[in-house]
Write a structure and sequence with these properties.
The complex is a heterodimer of chains A (285) and B (158). Chain A is of the alpha+beta class and 285 residues long. Chain A has 7 helices and 12 strands. The longest helix of chain A has 16 residues, at 22-37. Chain B starts with a helix and ends with a helix. Classes of the chains: A alpha+beta (285), B mainly alpha (158).
């Protein structure tokens, strides 16, 4: 063991980043002061048209109907990253999908995949399996949190929570249903590692919608910024092709009365799914 | 539900950890500060829906999300050698070790930072990173091996 090796303690590693600079600490304190002293603004409820309100009520009443219209991957990333992302993904190579796979009491449907600039983007809808009496509780969400709303406010879920919203646990108890925690995460691409990003949120129809971006081979990925224009360009490590095979980790874990998933009882599978280009899909690059 | 007092206390207690985590991801003090402040805003808005004992993993997850959002919006890499020139670092960081850490893939570095460096329990890291505990354990192990190798190589070369 070398002298260097002996010093790789947690304390030593923490020193690699040094202490937080004064500007960072001051920024945190300023934020805390602002948050704790500002007046709470009453949350504005979105104005709902009569038709939309009726549709919403019907959706909530139909506890076994999960055929909600999900935004496309381009729309979801547009809401998450901004309009440029939606424009870019809308012009990307659109793939034929709508394939489903069931794990435990959860059915996962890959509804939409787009290749753009070396990166695969997609959306997966998790819904209770037909006939299964379960309520899906997404990871990071609390059983006491409002059912169907998105406290992480990713921009695509319903963030404004009405005062009378029921919790996941309450909905499950009313239905005599079990709480189940789903998971859907791609495992990179082609065994090359590389970055995978996801965001997800629950919806009032009981689904949990996941969107992902898979960068592929990190050796081929690059990003650069034009120093003069500030324009940013990027490219992932997945070559354009007529078909792509994704390896997606899927699981369903029962949730205990304490609201925590029981990972020992989790059912998990890797779903290998191949998507092919739509006939009308043009070469994006 | 996280009370106002508890929110402030826990944020102050974890401030250094949040700094190290965020700067390990975005590699810039300014971006780390932005990411943490954004995360605090979001966590504050939803503090009434978070259980007290789950607050730190919850906040950690939001900080990671904010860091990744910043990276994707503004992909840029600032070599650690330039950090001092930006006036961002106060207490003499170990740049050689930091460089070795920066060379780890993010999927290995973040579990290492959270579990080994910051002492977060495996179960919490698993929840934060949405990975099975066994995967977290394995990544921490691989990260330590890779870091040791990178650091020793750095020592031989430097």
């Amino acid at each position: 063991m070398t002298q260097r090796d002996q010093h790789l303690t947690p304390e030593r590693l923490r020193r690699a980043y040094g202490d937080a600079p004064a500007s960072f600490n001051q920024g945190v304190e300023d934020t805390l002061l602002r948050l704790t002293t500002r007046e709470e603004q009453p949350k504005m409820k979105k104005k709902l048209s009569v038709a939309l309100a009726i549709a919403l009520i019907v959706t909530m009443l139909c506890t076994v109907a999960y055929a909600v219209t999900v935004l496309t991957t381009a729309q979801r990333f547009g809401a998450y990253y901004g309009e440029d992302a939606q424009t870019r993904l809308s012009a990307g190579q659109q793939m034929q999908v709508e394939q489903s796979h069931t794990v435990g009491d959860v059915t996962y449907t890959l509804q939409d995949v787009v290749w753009s600039e070396g990166i695969l983007y997609g959306t997966i809808v998790a819904a209770p399996k037909a006939g299964a009496n379960v309520v899906l509780l997404p990871e990071d969400f609390e059983q006491t949190g409002p059912f169907g709303y998105d406290p992480y406010n990713s921009g695509v879920g319903e963030a404004e929570v009405p005062a009378d919203a029921k919790s996941f646990r309450q909905v499950a108890e009313e239905r005599g249903a079990a709480l189940v925690m789903p998971r859907a995460i791609p495992e990179g691409y082609g065994g090359t590692g590389g970055d995978v990003g996801i965001f997800f949120e629950p919806h009032l129809d009981g689904t949990v919608v996941y969107s992902f971006e898979v960068w592929g081979d990190p050796e081929k990925s690059w990003q650069k910024e034009d120093p003069e224009t500030g324009k940013f360009t990027q490219f992932g490590g997945i070559d354009q092709a007529d078909a792509y095979t994704l390896d997606i980790y899927l699981s369903a874990a029962p949730v205990g009365e304490d609201g925590l998933p029981n990972y020992d009882a989790r059912i998990a599978e890797n779903w290998e799914v191949t998507v092919t280009a739509k006939p009308e899909a043009t070469k994006a690059e | 539900m996280v009370s106002e007092t508890s929110f402030v206390t826990q944020v102050r207690e974890k401030r250094e950890m949040l700094y190290r985590l965020s700067v390990s991801l975005v590699r810039s003090d300014a971006d780390a500060q932005d990411a943490v402040q954004q995360a605090l805003e979001k966590a504050w808005q939803h503090r009434d829906r978070v259980e007290e004992g789950a607050f730190v993993p919850y906040l950690t997850r939001i900080v990671i999300n904010e860091c990744k959002t910043q990276l994707r919006r503004k992909r840029r890499t600032i070599p650690s050698e330039n950090l001092e020139a930006l006036g961002g670092v106060s207490e003499q960081p170990d740049l050689a070790l930091r460089d070795a850490l920066d060379r780890l893939p993010e999927k290995l570095r973040t579990p290492l930072v959270l579990h080994y460096m910051e002492g977060m329990p495996l179960a919490d890291v698993s929840r934060v990173l949405r990975l099975p505990e066994s995967t977290v354990r394995s990544r921490v192990h691989r990260a330590r091996q890779a870091l040791r190798k990178a650091w020793q190589e750095g020592g031989e070369n430097g």
